[in-house]
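Reminder to self: tokens first, then the designed residues, so the page reads top to bottom the way the pipeline ran.
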């Protein structure tokens, strides 16, 4: 979805408009939903059932009591607030800064997808969980620096290279953060 989706959208938008992209996306999500239907989640022992508000507050207290979970959640919120808007501005960068329109946007988004896929492969080949905290910090900082570089470049192909590296480091950051939280959460605190 991160590589092929933008590439296909870059072809469909100029020829059929964005409505066709949304239709294709809806069909894809429907097939994904159908594939998920036979999957049954593992049943785990949970604490007593309480109201949503009480369980939410329990989760907040638990996250605050665990240094790893608390810091990863805070850092993830900060990164989400600062990084996601730049990605949402890719259409404007493609059109106004690089004068490339929808085809340029599809190249930028596909480039980010290529970097993300490389990040996933890199993490899948990793044979240990130790050092994820440092890798999380370094990859998050690298993502922020790369977006800063992207914001100041006016050369399209340099921007594409920066976006590939950003997709790589940002995906590694996300995987590390999620893995750190999942390895720390006790079973009774899981949803």
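Designed residues (191 positions):
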């Amino acid at each position: 979805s991160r590589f092929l989706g933008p590439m296909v959208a870059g072809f469909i938008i100029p020829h059929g408009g964005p409505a066709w992209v949304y239709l294709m996306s809806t069909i894809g999500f429907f097939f994904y939903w159908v594939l998920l239907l036979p999957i049954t989640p593992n049943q785990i022992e949970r604490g007593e059932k309480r109201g949503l508000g009480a369980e939410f507050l329990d989760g907040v207290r638990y996250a605050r009591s665990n240094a790893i979970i608390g810091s990863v959640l805070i850092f993830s919120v900060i990164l989400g607030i600062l990084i996601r808007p730049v990605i949402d501005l890719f259409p404007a960068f493609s059109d106004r800064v690089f004068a490339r329109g929808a085809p340029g946007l599809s190249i930028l988004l596909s480039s980010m997808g290529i970097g993300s896929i490389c990040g996933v492969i890199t993490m899948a080949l990793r044979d240990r969980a130790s050092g994820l905290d440092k890798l999380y910090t370094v990859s998050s900082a690298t993502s922020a620096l790369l977006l800063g570089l992207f914001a100041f470049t006016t050369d399209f192909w340099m921007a594409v290279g920066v976006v590939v590296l950003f997709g790589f480091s940002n995906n590694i950051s996300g995987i590390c953060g999620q893995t750190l939280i999942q390895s720390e959460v006790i079973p009774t605190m899981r949803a």
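Residues 20 and 26 are 10 Å apart (CA to CA).
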